[in-house]
Amino acid sequence: MTLAADHGPEYLVVIDAVDGQLLFRKSLTTYQSQPVRYVVYGGDSPAPLSPTTATDPGQNVQGLGVARDTFDIIREIPEDNLGWITDGQNTTNGNNADVGLDLGWPDGIDWNGYATGSPWRVFDSPYTPRR
User: Fold this and answer.
1) pTM exceeds 0.70, yes or no
2) pLDDT, tens only, 93-117
3) How far apart are CA 92 and CA 109, in angstroms?
4) What Rg value do the Cα atoms of the chain yield, rounded?
């Protein structure tokens, strides 16, 4: 499979069949320009225990806690040109994400339920997992 980013920008073009004159051209490639910083657990858990053979919950086995990782991301994948959070925005409501809290009626994300970057476009909330 060939991705658009593998061979540069792509365009939609209309060419006159008689004389080959370019009649219309539109760029199909846009790029996100503002990075977003996420501070998250990069592994499978705040206390990963993988790979492991201790799969029985009755064994009382718990992995050691790990620190969160910091990711500065401009684009996630080549086809995702606007990222999780669109340029100029600072909440978890973007091209590929609509993430927030739904604590009450009616169903749907509460009006104040979106996470907001603080400082601008930095998502790092204090969190200490319980053991």
Assistant:
1) no
2) 876 678 889 988 888 888 888 888 8
3) 11
4) 22
CA angle centred on 97, ends 35 and 84, rounded to 5°: 15
Rounded Cα distance between 92 and 107, Å, is 18
Cβ–Cβ contacts within 10 Å for residue 8, how many? 7
Strand arrangement of the beta sheet that strand 36-40 belongs to = 69-73, 36-40, 122-123
Hunting for tokens 């009755």 — which residue is that? Answer: 58
Helices (H) and strands (E) in the chain, counts: 0, 5
Contact 48, 63 (CB under 8 A): yes
Tokens for 92? 């978890």
20: alpha, beta or left? (left if phi > 0; alpha if psi -120 to 50):
left
Residues 122, 85: Cα–Cα separation, whole Å: 11
Residues 6 or more apart whose CB falls under 8 angstroms from that of 51 comprise: none
